[in-house]
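Hey L., structure's done. Input below.
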Amino acid sequence: MSKLNKYYISIGISALLLLILFTVIALPIIARDKAAEAIHAATGRRAHIGSVSINPFTLTATVTEFAIDENMGGTPLFGCRRFRVSLSPASIYKRALILSNVNIDSPAFSLARTAPNRYNFSDILDKQGHATKQEKKHDFLFSFNNIIVTNGSLDFDDQAVAGGRKHTIRTLNVAIPFISNIPYLAEQYIDPKISALVDGAPFSFAGKLKPLSKSLETSVHISLKKLSLPQFVAYSPIKPPVGLASGNSISKSSMI
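Output:
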């Protein structure tokens, strides 16, 4: 091997090592700062990101301690202990965003209804709605696979109902094989599985869906047991003729 070839090989190896170092060390810092700026611009809320790590060999990105502030302060509107995605190389030749794995650990929402049809995130929807009207629509193909959500929670403070009500979701676990709008995948059934405690009552959901198909074919089984019913009387559109002192749901239903 000539000295010139050795020189070019050494240059190539050095460039590759520098690229790997940039991807592992510098790029995560840049991505963290740019993501926080983009979220603030899109939502008007401050975003906090603990760390970002990128593995160039597995095409995996991990975000830890992510949170978006609530507009009025206090508990974050949304937080997540860890969010990890893996990009599939098939994204290149299929010309679509294809994630081979999506893992969300301990997502937490803190929502409030402040008035009829107004929530503590309504300003974000208003902002997004205004931006959408000004942007030209483009077809965006995607396929998110092996979606796993573990230990999720939600706190909902309904300030608009008479007397106010607070509701919770705890130990939310979700497993979805895939969600895609790629035509041949959108026509395939998915069988999501969801379990949680809703206001302390065990909830489960399973079935077969085509969520992004034009046919919207659905067959599901829902179970919600031991849910305390008196707290929901306030949501009745008409005033009940009698009071409900106690009572629990024994719901188990199937829909096609």
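Helices lie at 3-43, 90-94, 122-134, 183-186. Residues 3-43 form the longest helix (41 residues).

-- N.
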